[in-house]
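so my prof wants the structure for this chain in the tokens format not the other one, which i didnt know existed until like an hour ago. anyway here's the sequence
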Amino acid sequence: MRGVWDGRATDVGGVRAIGEPLLEQTGTATTVRVLIIGANGEFTAVMTIDQEAGLVSGLRLDAGGEPVTPWTPPAYADPSRFEEHEIVLGSGPLAVPGTLSLPSTAGAHPAVVLLSGGGPFDRDETIGSNKPLKDIAWGLASRGIAVLRFDKITNIRPEIMTEDGGFTATAEYVPHATAAVRLLREHPSVDRDHVFVLGHSMGGTMAPRVAAAGEPTVAGLVLMAGATVPMHRAGIRVVEHLAALAPDHGESARPLIEELTQQAGLADRANVTFRIYHADDHMFFPGSDPSTPASYDPPQHVDPEAVEDIASWLLETAIDA
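here's what i got, hopefully its the right format
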């Protein structure tokens, strides 16, 4: 956090003033936005506070001040080719809302459940002005694929992380993801034998657990920047990258970096396809400069090449089966 803060402060020419906090209440969570003013620019500290637990449950530093630039659809999305419906997964206090995007064409379509990354994300994986999962959902639905995305339980009920001392990543992802697969398999506009799961980041790491749950059946997985190696090995790549961005703060990580090695676990599988997008950052936003946390802030969209590759793989897999 020190490295991220120092980077932001340097970008704006040092902190000169701090604005009044702006509060927004959603259920038991309060979002607080504080404008940080520097000599050469501004950034906004955004904190999510769980009022019942009295703890900070989210913290990020967004470039620029308020308001956030509204999301606009990517060029590869055609809203005239699909329609969207609100759905609910689960029941009672553990119910979460979501969106089902259905192609307008007749027949049974292949379908995919989207899982967002680690943190209390909404169904669109909103980060500043950007909505990566909405980009993907609209891009795939425009190509004849039904898509279901949903708010994580930690977004709807952030207090669950402190209420339940045994709350795990499996509890955060698997129950609602399997319910989403089940809903798609039972929908008349979906080919029940070709329901996939796409996970980004932590969602990609957890997607195999959704498939391993066994029921309902998952036809295949798309892992976008998910860990396909043990977490301590995947994490070290992040540490190496951040250490390279801030060498003054990276020496403390050097013993850990030297201790661990990288290893892929899917290379020998005949039914696995790898795609590497050299221009993309962790959110699959394309660019030419080195990826930094600040590069997520400008309004942008998921790489159209990645969306096209995902759509092609889902459709080809459904046809070949």
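also thought this was worth mentioning. The chain has a mean pLDDT of 84.
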